[in-house]
Predict the structure of histidine kinase.
Amino acid sequence: MFSLKILIVEDDSVSALLLQRALEKNNHQIIGVADTGEKALELLEQQPADIVMMDINLAGDLDGIKTTEIINEKYDIPVVYLSASSDAETLNKVVGTNPSAYVIKPFNIRELNMVIELAIFKDRKEKELQKLNNELEEKVKLRTAELYEANKELTKALEKEREINELKSRIVLNVSHGFKTPLTSILSSAQLLQMYAEKDHPFKQKISKHAFKIENSVRALNNLLTSVLFFGKADANQMEYKPKKLFLGAFVKEVLDTTQAGVENGVKVKTNLGKLPKTITSDQDLLYQVFENLLSNAIKYSKDNGEVIFNLDYEDGMLKGKIQDFGIGIPKSEQSQLYDRFFRARNVGIVEGSGLGLSIVKKCLEVMKGEINFTSEVGKGTTFEVSIPVK
């Protein structure tokens, strides 16, 4: 048993003396014996104690319970209550002061030693726990402050990114629109050259050849700018679904004429049209992007003089398209990246492209609430199937 500095607060002198002798036999140091609460507080003011043995019923204005409340608040010393009563009323009075232990008089030395040890152990553990709680609270405060600062920095960074994205979108839109006018002029001039080449001219063949190259190059550049403009609008959250009535036959003809106009590899498109309604209601621009990009890709990646099959049908309010080619196909390891912007498979070789077409198709179908699926095998070709709700 370790030695403790103990204050005894007991108004019965005989009980106090017996308690003192019992404690001193166990090598404890008694710093004083008080018969009132007031005297106990005076003694603690003069010399600190490790533990207080407190009689509940004391003479004077301060009984044992009130004195213990002051000791708890001012000195934070463990208190062991001494009482000749163990009734419920007494226990209810002392429980609010959170005593370290409670001893019933008369007590024996063994019981007293055990109670004191438990009281000291309880006090130390409570103080350790309080210390840990304080440290945890401090860490929580510090971490909260760090998170607050980090959140402020993140908010600033996100705002800066939003501003940069807006600026980027404006630049892309302005620059792309700026290119449109001269490209239109170049295309018109190339078409005029084609007309002149039809007349008798010593360089008729060369004029026709170079005019065709100019026209195809302008169309390719124009398609690229259209793609850039498309994603400029998408990134600026300006993509809208604008359905209107359109003649389906005329629409299909326009798509086929455009995709076959610049064909250089001799690929033919075989078209199979099912029972199509004369008119549908949908977003013509988005529909055009879907079918034009899918057909252009199928033609572009087909073998020379090959064939692309284009099936179009209508069923239960859904426009269903199937575009099948027998070209280079897509490696299985790369198929998960197919709709990523600027992605191009390793096996495309010298075939030119921006890698934006399928990204545009995917985005358009998302806006129209449509679906797309594909199957592909290297060297055997690729098949895309789209299903688009229309009215």
Observations:
- The chain has three domains: 5-107, 158-236, 244-389.
